[in-house]
Amino acid sequence: MAIALGLLALPTLAGARLAPLSGNARWIALAAALELMSVLGFVVVFKLVFCARQSWRRGLSAALRGLGASTALPAGGLIGPAIGAYSTRSTGPSLARIARSAIAFVVLTNAPSLAILAAVGLAMRVGLLSGPRDAVLTLLPGGLALAVLAAGSLIGMRPGSSSASSCRSPGRFVRVFVGTLSSLRDGVSEARALVLGGNWKLLGALGYYAFDNAVLWAAFHAYGPTPGLGVVAMGYLVGSLGAALPIPAGIGAVEGGLIGGLVLYGVPAASAAAAVLLYRGASLLIAVPLGALGWAPQPLAKLRLLPGRFRRLTPMHARSNASRGDRRARPVIVSSSALHP
């Protein structure tokens, strides 16, 4: 929380040129609303992948836990959703199933950004969107994104390979390697099956990316001149590679990657830094408390049951006292009847 508030305050403390106060507040409020919409997209696609047979209430709690873990933990993009799903394991899937679904979740939530990276890169190259037209900044990242999407499709359609058991005495490294490839193939296949299923909750994956990118766009409006949508999209997508570093909450790595990516596409360093710090502050200030809230419904539900339990205990206590009084009175009755046969 303190880190998020500090990121929000840094642009102002550094003397960044601000829009008028009303405009600044309006755009910051819009950024917060867009981040909430991104969280909603995360919840919807999480429900599809991990909690398809559970209620929305249970799925929401698990999704918020996964969101908090994804935001705060190193390499949280993969292990965060798995933690959220594991928190419902008492009535949920096995660990192997969770690992497979976590890979599917990563594929579904990253596929929209890769597709948009390829489309925006091509559009900038041919002049449909404003920004640099250098092939290294447009065609290269777009081509790499298409290559990743194509490789994922091939992995998902690839027939099962020979397992480690086909070897007479496979070593530990071989077993781990083969098991990892098998989990990756199964996860991509699950993601592909979900896409072919055409469930409306797949829109959550697109919303999770698009609204989060829009937060950065709103942050530029709050703190100064706004670059073109293509530049914001490319800088966001290329700079987000910093999130892959195993650093808690991505502090430093994500900010540096985004600022560097935006500067690479022609955004002034001061404007990029101010917008990125606002974007990161809003993201952390919303995602982390919601993640903590995800663990609250179970204790709160138990607290709501306490009045009913007290009401049920009170008559039981009275009946137990009455029964003890009856038991104490019985010897007196027996002794008096013995005196008068």
Tags for this model:
341 residues, mainly alpha, 2 domains, 76% helix, globular
Q: What is this entry, summarized?
A:
The protein has 341 residues and is an all-alpha fold. Helices cover 76% and strands 0% of the residues.
| Rg over alpha carbons | 28 Å
Number of domains: 2
Q: What's the count of strands?
A: 0
Please outline the major beta sheet.
none
Question: How far apart, in Å, are the first and last alpha carbons?
Answer: 83 Å
Unreliable residue stretches: 2-6, 18-23, 160-167, 299-303, 326-341
Helicity range of the residues?
Answer: over 70%
Overview of the molecule:
The chain is an all-alpha fold and 341 residues long. It has 2 domains: 2-295, no CATH class; 305-341. The protein has 12 helices and no strands. The protein has helices at residues 2-13, 21-50, 56-72, 76-86, 95-126, 139-157, 172-197, 203-223, 229-239, 253-264, 269-293, 297-339. The longest helix is centred in the last third of the chain and has 43 residues, at 297-339. The chain is globular and about 50 Å long. The protein starts with a helix and ends with a helix.
What's the layout of helices and strands?
Blueprint: H1 2-13, H2 21-50, H3 56-72, H4 76-86, H5 95-126, H6 139-157, H7 172-197, H8 203-223, H9 229-239, H10 253-264, H11 269-293, H12 297-339
Helix pairs in contact: 1-11, 2-3, 2-5, 2-8, 2-11, 3-4, 3-11, 4-5, 5-6, 5-7, 5-8, 5-9, 6-7, 8-11, 9-10, 10-11
